[in-house]
Amino acid sequence: MSIRVLKAGDVYRIEGPAKVVVRRGQVYATGVVYTEGQSFTVLRARRLVIKALSESEVELVLGPGALLERVDPREEIIDEWESKTASIDPKGVIVIVGMIDVGKSTMTAMLGNKALARGYKVAIIDADVGQNDLGPPTTVSLARLTKYITHLRQLVAEKSIFLQATSLERIWPRAIEQIARAVDFAKRSWQVDTIILNTDGWVLDEEAVVFKRRLIDVIKPSLIIAIQVEKELAPVLDGYNNVVVLPPPPQVRSRSREDRKIHREMGYGRYIFPPVELAIPLDKIPICNLPIFKGIEIGDELKRILARAIGTGVLKAYQVGNRVYAIIENDAWVVRRVSGFQVIGLPIDFEKGLLVGLEDAEHFLVGLGVMKRIYYDRRKAIIYTSSEVERRIGEVKCIRLGLVRLDDNFNEVEKAYSLLKVEHE
């Protein structure tokens, strides 16, 4: 622990883990003015910029690897962000957009704090499925803000929606639907005054622009906060007049693709480890997006005819309407028309290692799991999941197969996009 006197106007950069206690004076951080007796924390490996608004005395507790440095105020954008957001009434829905690593999460926390300071009831929605700060990777997660924070990681998701993937490129239509559902839930069930929506960093290509604009059109936010380096968000923002454009922090930490992957893998482990093995009866808790046990099981003679038609052995087959789902003796997926039916050939063991979401009756996430095996004769699935899910298994109404395959150490080994061709609600 150390005591430091800060001069009025001094700007400091802190890298956690650290705790700051204001003994006298006024210190500004993340949209909040902290005064005598108040404190805030900086999480491990996270960075926070603070400013002394008057001569202040602070007590600093710096953990292992923590850093504290005084910086030239011109090296940071703390004043610019504050001046451009000071007059904003953060009521309604505010959407934060920008590329990866431009400070969207920090701005989300900052605006949430400002809304809370006005006495508003506040919900935070993190829709960054790859680097979610509120809940597990692959989810849109929601939490209510009841006290000031410096990082979104200080919140715990109260509700999460499993979006199956760590990026939205191939699933963005469903993402729009589910993000809108999250916004509606916060309005209807929590009756909040303010919703701050943090979005993912996919903005640069043409399809990303379509996604972001359709999301904005569906959500109808009262304000869009755009953090941009140059003019890369112009195609997204074109035609909207409720936009505040901000620069990114010059010293923001940029993470490589590998760093982000490691961060996700640690996230899987945090929400599943130590795993428990559950045998789940698929007659009672079905697979949400692959109705293999919901139809009529096809007999041996028809299986032989089907095998000749698709050129591979068929172990099990189920007719659901005009579709036939077949478990096949093949490594490749098969999608083919046969006698007026669409035949979906699922490779044997296709399910092994798939990340799954165990959902409740409202399709909110109860917990994540990893599918180990489906026993077709017994109509059971073996899933590794957390003891929390085991405790709440009575709430689980269906299992949604994800598009990420993990190994036994929760490392990502494959994107299972073939499932998109065949999944069905």
Automatic annotation (TrEMBL):
Biological process (GO), any one: RNA processing
This protein's UniProt keywords: ATP-binding, Kinase, Nucleotide-binding, Transferase
Function of the protein: Polynucleotide kinase that can phosphorylate the 5'-hydroxyl groups of both single-stranded RNA (ssRNA) and single-stranded DNA (ssDNA). Exhibits a strong preference for ssRNA.
InterPro entries: Clp1/Grc3 (IPR045116), CLP1_P (IPR032319), P-loop_NTPase (IPR027417)
Listed PANTHER family: CLEAVAGE/POLYADENYLATION FACTOR IA SUBUNIT CLP1P, POLYNUCLEOTIDE 5'-HYDROXYL-KINASE NOL9
Coiled-coil annotated residue ranges, if any: none
Lineage: Archaea, Thermoproteota, Thermoprotei, Thermoproteales, Thermoproteaceae
Matching Pfam families: CLP1_P (PF16575)
Record field: catalytic activity: a 5'-end dephospho-ribonucleoside-RNA + ATP = a 5'-end 5'-phospho-ribonucleoside-RNA + ADP + H(+); a 5'-end dephospho-2'-deoxyribonucleoside-DNA + ATP = a 5'-end 5'-phospho-2'-deoxyribonucleoside-DNA + ADP + H(+)
Keyword Transferase: yes
Enzyme Commission numbers on file: 2.7.1.78
UniProt cofactor(s): a divalent metal cation
Gene3D superfamilies: P-loop containing nucleotide triphosphate hydrolases
Occurrences of domain Clp1 P-loop (ranges): 98-272
Enzyme class: transferase
The protein, known as: polynucleotide 5'-hydroxyl-kinase
Membrane-traversing stretches: none
